[in-house]
Design a protein that fits this description.
It is a single chain. By secondary structure, the protein is of the alpha+beta class. It is built from one helix and two strands, in the order ββα. The protein has one domain. It is about 20% helix and about 25% strand.
């Protein structure tokens, strides 16, 4: 959980680390969400990727 000063409530943070086949380094995606604890990290990643509501940095 993470709470920024400007937010009214804390948010869940999910980090997805993937190392593509044949690559030396991992790529990381960070998902900051208001979805409840009933969502698994895998479900959060699938939801945001499916809806196109995520950004890579």
């Amino acid at each position: 959980m993470y709470q920024a000063k400007k937010w009214d409530e804390p948010r869940k943070v999910v980090i997805q680390s993937v190392r593509p086949a044949g690559e030396l380094f991992f790529t990381h995606s960070f998902f900051v969400t208001h979805l409840t604890e009933s969502f698994t990290p895998e479900a959060i990643v699938r939801t945001y990727q499916k809806e196109g509501r995520w950004r890579t940095t």
